[in-house]
Amino acid sequence: MRNTAKITTAVLAAGALTFGLSACGSGSDSDSKADGGDTLTVAATPTPQGEILTYVKDHLAQKAGLKLEVKEFTDYVTPNTAVQQGEVDANYFQHQPYLTDFNKKNGTDIVAVPGATVHLEPLGVYSKGVKKLDDLKKGATVALPNDTTNEARALKLLAANGVIGLKSGVGYDATPKDVTTNPKGLKFKELEAAQLPRSLGDVDAAVINGNYALEADLSPAKDAIAAESPKDNPYGNFLAVKKGKEDDPRVQKLAKLLTSPEVKKFIEDKYQGAVVPAF
Q1: What's the sign of the alpha-carbon dihedral 255, 7, 144, 154?
Q2: Confidence at residue 36, expressed as pLDDT on a 0 to 100 scale
Q3: 68 φ, ψ (degrees, to nearest 5)
Q4: Nearest CA to 237 among 208, 279, 179, 199?
Q5: CATH fold of 40-122+234-277, please?
Q6: How far apart are CA 74 and CA 257, in angstroms?
Q7: What is the pLDDT of residues 150-167, one digit of tens each?
Q8: In this predicted model, what pLDDT tens digit does every residue of 116-125 receive, in sequence order?
Q9: Residue 32 to residues 29, 70, 84, 167, 259: CA-CA distances in angstroms?
Q10: How far apart are the C-alpha atoms of 42 and 220, rounded to whole Å?
Q11: Is 120 helix (H, G, I), strand (E, B) or coil?
Q12: Topology adopted by domain 124-227
């Protein structure tokens, strides 16, 4: 994710599937599509969201009478701008703290579909040089996601493991300025979330979002030297739409499929604890 998500057409990272207005429609055309068109088009990051949606498309959608198209992106901005501008019908890639921050900064009105929180990707700390956080040397550099909510999430993970201390009551917008104790004198390097796995050779440790860890063949369950607990975790990923589209029958069908026993089993079997169901 980005620290400041502006409503502009984002330049996608390498490997993203791009699209234009001619592909998805805009303005009144997209509104008409969202209201009565057959195919539901959903923007998603590739792993695990795109994989989960593809499973639904290949195994569940036809029986439910749903025509589903999945468009994959490697950044955390375009899926929301595409929903806001009517270029896609929905997206599936984010948690509530990120969406709340995005709407506030950009004046958008994207909402979570009620009852459609699907999974949690535990945030993890990874390192090529140490096997536990306590082994980080004095002055070590730790890379963090540079978007507001995930940076706070990363700092809270470090604090929960006793590496740093944070101001009492700090919320979802904590930054390194809110660090009150830092006995190892850690230095923080803020990077776009997608770049974090590639940074492991240049820093002593990195706090990496679950989807990007998976794409880099890293598992929070096996490779992380510290990872979030899923218990009472507010960072579950959900299906989201522009406000007013929550009751679209196609959206409701997809929400039901994404929280079905079949999808729960798929997540548990495929990801082996690196991604966990949130329903």
Answers
A1: negative
A2: 43
A3: -120, 130
A4: 279
A5: D-Maltodextrin-Binding Protein; domain 2 (3.40.190)
A6: 24
A7: 999 999 999 999 999 999
A8: 999 998 899 9
A9: 5, 19, 15, 49, 27
A10: 26
A11: strand
A12: D-Maltodextrin-Binding Protein; domain 2 (3.40.190)
